[in-house]
Write a structure and sequence with these properties.
The structure holds two protein chains of two kinds. By secondary structure, chain A is of the alpha/beta class. Chain A has helices spanning about 40-60, 75-85, 100-120, 140-145, 205-225, 235, 275-290, and strands at about 5-10, 15, 40, 60-65, 85-90, 125, 150-160, 165-175, 175-185, 190-195, 230. Chain A has one domain: Rossmann fold. In chain A, strands 9-8-7-10-6-1-4-5-11 form a nine-stranded mixed beta sheet, sandwiched between helices. A two-stranded antiparallel ribbon of chain A has the order 2-3. In chain A, strand 7 (about 150-160) and strand 8 (about 165-175) form a beta hairpin. Chain B is α+β, with helices and mostly antiparallel strands. Chain B contains 24 helices and 28 strands. In chain B, the strands form seven sheets. In chain B, strands 3, 4, 5, 6, 11, 12, 13, 14, 17 and 22 form a ten-stranded mixed beta sheet that branches. Classes of the chains: A alpha/beta, B alpha+beta. At the A-B interface, helix 5 of A face strand 7 of B.
């Protein structure tokens, strides 16, 4: 019996580009979302890479979904370049606005079930957390809603398509000490979140050939990414208005406070590279600092 | 273990030709390239020839890549002038060798391999993918082995799991590691090698064409012998590219060992020749330090503004002096006329001079410094270029045509690669990889190549054309020793007899006479002194230091060195302190020590060290090549 092809779903988030010079603020100090450039979040990119790994190694079918306003399709294009995705889903509706993680998870649950021509996904991958939300709840909550086992902080994984199981390594950091790598085996379907340090490796000739092929394909697909884009509103997803958007959100943000700017402790001092006396002074200072510094 | 039909090791022009030819024949092959992408590790002089010998046939690049090569490939210029200059200080005597250059050619293009090779790679991999093969870059082949009881070869790399193949084409260059691990030939020694050093110099397109009196369809090559060689056997070359110049020096390693001079200084000697200096001259801005008392902040602000303006000036000027560039500027609607662009450039210059302490003057702009070893085919070609089911091609097999001013390597490698691919395809069809069936067949094919004949024999006709070109030189000038040979060679009957005799004797025996300091230095110096015209340049080029040259190169340094010094006190290693083109060696208490950061992997030191290429992706990446 031929092995059933692997279906992969990825949930990603469009995030403000926090790199220098790209963030703009409103006069009251809150983030100006309209002006700030948006990109595929770095954690979402790690999840997308994990999907690409499945694509290259297991010839998986990949669908990528995100909930957000129509401009979020740029994130989907970026994700397609990374992963050579076959389907791009945008879950967009005014009534989704104001959703917290649980309400978002509800939309994503419905989205995942429509992925890969309605077959859903054997593996759903999310990022570790979003860089503008920081809660890290959307992934696990979506897993819970889907009823899939959840494996977090995955740094490496292998799929056994025949026995329909996953063998994953997860990285657990306990307060910065005692870092542990845990190996887990689980049956499919499964939900995993990619650790920020996740990086796929391709170690055989066939994988490298497939890698080159997929990279080429991804580039040409992303040029016409609209062709792969499917937009779902609340109705198309069959969402129950009680569980999505503001009504579906048990948490409320009641106030956003500006974080006071910390005073810089560093001091810049220019020294003249041609002046030996100044160089000596700098060297002495460095030596002093290094002697004082505790060895960690 | 995965299994494939053929592995091609090395993604230069030969390797890619082999891959494409195999694909043309419907065969599956995997090409492994150590550089991060194909083309980043390749350096050539570089002229790529397409030839049509009278006897026998050679395979040219268009035979493999099709007409598309001529129509689409990013080569630089068709070389239509070929001039040799004898130099002595400010004297110069020129001999037009264009007929020599055009001998039996279809065309000759100047090329920059970092541009050309990626094109070849795309063409080759597109075709190869259809056969289940392709190119894998960033992978360094460490070793190959044969398992007992199997004809298959196991390829071991630093990056991938080992895999099996039925045949291997080794296109891994002059410093072939496959030749080393299979011990199918000795490492090339200094009497078999030339060292080439090159700089790529920027010169806007139409300025270049005016300077060399060429059209957009033409290109020029200039060769230099005489005092610019600093008493070494070899000479300098200058090839025009589209909007750059390749300027290089190629010297026999033996004479470099005898008289060690830092390679970068040899390039400098060439650049400072007044004739060359005038060729490469361009308008170059320099910025003086601001003497006025201004704050650090203001100084930094001014610096950034100046850099920004200089960038705009530079880009606009490059476009202004380029056919496509000026068209693009006017079509974009940004400017209406040429004059408008010109006045914008002038205004930028004025602003830079008045506000930002800039000065515009004559100098030249160096883009990239590179070096490589070139095998002299007549001294080091592998007589049986194979080991078991591994076929060596091009530089890896020590095959290059090196006769006086004629240096051909790329086309020889391409011809070998086609022959190797054809031999392998034949073996795949018959499932027979025995040495007699594969190796011997390939050897025979290579022996039949007109290029091999050029490595073994003097070509009478070629010699005649060469002598005709230089017939205006008085015979007494070249000394009694050469005078006699010259006289002998001017008569066609005597020439026929002499060449026949020399070829019978084995012309390698004549080499010490022909390839000597006399031929490359003393005779040209005398010619220049007695017959030369005075040349003058109104500026002295400001050559960058070696540190500046290295700083411009891109590196991904490995934490572990790819070279191990085994004999730190040997005479050879002591000489490497001067001869390493990037000064990676230094001497400490009599021991030569290596600092591998900065290595450009030329292999100059390979003979007496444990020398490997860096691991995949690591090491230098050339932008021009």
């Amino acid at each position: 019996m031929p092995v059933r092809p692997l279906n992969v779903g990825v949930i990603v988030k469009l995030e403000p580009d926090f790199s220098e010079g790209n963030v703009s603020y409103n006069p009251d100090g809150t983030l100006n979302r309209a002006e700030t450039k948006n990109i595929l979040g770095p954690h979402s990119a790690a999840a997308t890479l994990a999907a690409f790994y499945c694509k290259v190694k297991y010839a998986a079918r990949v669908a990528i979904g995100t909930m957000g306003p129509p401009i979020a399709n740029q994130a989907l294009k970026q994700a397609q370049i990374i992963s050579n995705a076959d389907e791009l889903h945008l879950y967009s509706d005014r009534i989704f606005a104001g959703a917290d993680t649980l309400a978002t998870a509800e939309v994503l649950r419905l989205g995942v079930s429509r992925m890969n021509n309605g077959l859903g996904a054997d593996i759903v991958i999310s990022g570790h957390r979003a860089s503008d939300g920081e809660t890290g709840q959307t992934g696990p909550q979506t897993a819970w809603k889907l009823g899939y086992p959840f494996i977090g902080n995955v740094i490496d994984f292998q799929i056994d398509p025949e026995n329909r199981s996953i063998h994953a390594k997860r990285f657990i950091s306990l307060y910065g000490f005692y870092d542990v790598i845990e190996e887990i085996q689980a049956p499919l379907p499964v939900f995993i979140s990619a650790d920020p340090s996740y990086k796929p490796s391709f170690d055989t000739v066939s994988e490298r050939l497939s890698l080159a092929r997929n990279l080429n394909e991804a580039r040409s697909k992303a040029e016409n990414f609209e062709k792969y884009l499917q937009v779902y509103n609340s109705e198309a997803l069959g969402a129950d208005p009680r569980f999505v958007g503001l009504p579906g959100s048990p948490t409320i943000v009641y106030k956003v406070e500006k974080i006071p700017k910390a005073k810089a402790k560093r001091r810049v001092e220019f020294i003249d590279g041609n002046d030996t006396a100044q160089l000596d002074m700098a060297a002495e200072k460095l030596l002093q600092l290094m002697t004082e510094a505790p060895i960690k | 273990m995965e299994k494939y039909d053929v592995a091609v090791v090395g993604g230069g022009t030969s390797g890619l030709t082999a891959l494409r030819q195999l694909a043309n024949l419907g065969k599956q092959a995997i090409l492994l390239e150590a550089g991060s992408t194909t083309g980043t590790k390749n350096v050539s002089g570089g002229i790529l020839y397409s030839k049509k010998p009278k006897n026998g046939r050679v395979y040219n690049i268009e035979d493999v890549f099709g007409r598309e090569f001529i129509d689409e490939a990013p080569f630089e210029r068709a070389i239509t002038q070929y001039i040799l200059h004898a130099t002595s200080k400010d004297k110069l005597y020129s001999i037009d060798l264009t007929p020599v250059h055009e001998y039996q050619i279809n065309y000759a293009y100047s090329v920059l391999l970092s541009k050309l090779v990626p094109w070849l790679a795309k063409e080759a991999s597109d075709m190869s993918e259809k056969m289940g093969g392709g190119i894998i870059s960033g992978v360094h082949v460490r070793s190959i082995r044969w398992e007992t009881g199997s004809n298959d070869t196991v390829i071991e790399t630093d990056e991938l799991e080992p895999f099996r193949v039925r045949a291997v084409i080794a296109a891994d260059g002059t410093n072939s590691e496959l030749a080393d691990v299979t011990q199918s030939r000795n490492k090339f020694s200094s009497e078999q090698l030339y060292q080439g050093v090159k700089v790529v110099i920027k010169l806007p397109e139409t300025i270049l064409e005016d300077r060399f009196s060429i059209t957009s369809e033409e290109g020029a090559a200039h060769l230099f012998a005489g005092d610019v060689t600093m008493n070494h056997i070899g000479g300098g070359f200058l090839y025009t590219n589209r909007d750059t110049i390749s300027l290089g020096a190629v010297y026999h390693m033996d004479s470099m060992m005898e008289n060690p001079v830092e390679p970068s200084r040899l390039i400098d000697a060439l650049i400072r020749n007044q004739f060359v200096a005038e060729f490469i001259k361009d308008r170059v801005p320099t910025r003086k330090a601001n003497q006025a008392l201004i704050s650090k902040d203001e100084e930094i602000r001014q610096h950034f503004m100046a850099v920004k303006l200089l960038k705009t000036w530079n880009n606009l000027r490059s476009d202004y002096y380029s056919r496509d560039g000026i068209k693009r500027l006017i079509e974009s609607g940004k400017y209406k006329t040429r004059e408008e662009i010109e006045s914008r450039i002038n205004n930028l210059e004025k602003e830079l001079v008045e506000k930002y302490n800039c000065e515009f003057g004559d100098n030249y702009v160096e883009l990239e410094y590179s070096a490589r070893l070139i095998p002299d085919g007549k001294r080091c070609r592998m007589k049986t270029p194979y080991y078991k089911n591994v076929l060596f091609v091009g530089d890896a097999a020590g095959r290059g045509v090196f006769i006086g001013p004629r240096i051909e390597g790329l086309n020889v490698g391409i011809d070998d690669a086609v022959r190797a691919a054809n031999a392998v395809a034949r073996s795949l069809d018959r499932n027979n990889f025995d040495e007699q069936y594969l190796g011997s067949f390939y050897t025979k094919s290579v022996e039949e190549s007109p290029y091999t004949r050029d490595m073994k024999e003097i070509d009478k006709e070629y010699l005649k054309i060469f002598l005709d070109c230089s017939k205006h030189i008085p015979k007494d000038i070249v000394g009694s020793r050469y005078g006699m040979i010259f006289k002998l060679m001017s008569s066609s009957t005597l020439r026929g007899i002499a060449v026949g005799f020399a070829n019978m004797l084995g012309f390698d025996r004549l080499l010490p006479l022909v390839e000597s300091v006399d031929t490359y230095v003393n005779v040209p110096v005398e010619i220049a002194e007695r017959l030369g015209r005075h040349v003058d340049s109104n500026y002295i080029p400001n050559t960058p230091s070696l540190q500046e040259r290295i700083a411009k190169l891109d590196y991904d340094d490995d934490s572990v060195p790819h070279i191990q010094v085994t004999k730190p006190r040997s005479e050879f290693m002591q000489k490497m302190v001067s001869l390493c083109p990037t000064r990676c060696y230094s001497s400490e208490n009599g021991d030569v020590i290596l600092q591998h950061e900065g290595c450009i992997e030329c292999g100059t030191c390979a003979y007496d060290t444990l020398w490997r290429h860096p691991r995949g992706v690591k090491g230098v990446s050339y932008k021009y090549g």
